[in-house]
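Quick start: what a row looks like.
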Amino acid sequence: MTHPTMAAGVASPVLPGDWVADPGTCTLAFAVRNFALHTVTGQIPLTSAVVHVGPSGEPDSIRAELDADGIRTGNPRRDRDLRGRRFLATGRWPVITFEAGYIKPVQTGWTVSGTLTVKDTQCPVRLDVPSFTIPADDQVAQVDLRATGRLDRRSAGVTAGPAFLIGHLISLSLAVRLRQQAGPPQLRRSPT
């Protein structure tokens, strides 16, 4: 059982400090249209994420890592191609990172703007976090949140394949469970 959805503008019960993702309960799904008709879906494992919550109870920094080599679309041949040199080149760059540069409360939740690093290319990404839920039986133990976004794969340095074969726009959908980290905070916001 969870509390009703909490959104920005509502007093936040989230305690300050570092909140770390539980990778076993997190998913990062993506979808891209191929041949202008067919939509390919898949997932990339989240290996780690830390959200630092400031004294006000609002997030002020986020950093996450994804296992590029773990990409799965349900088609082994396509997965091998995506891990290969023409696409993600996971033999050389096995990790995709995300670091938030700007986190803003909006009427329906949060807007998170940051930098995604794929291979040796950095590109901007905006995520919309509409809400989060907190288990009713333990308000400080964990937070479940969802986020959506879009990415142009060309800006991430993934340019192989013509647009009529592989679409450029990738839809992202994340489900993340965060638990408060014991001990001193590990992540701080970069000075601007």
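That is the whole record. The radius of gyration is 17 Å. Residues 17-127+150-167 form a domain with the Lipocalin fold (CATH 2.40.128.110).
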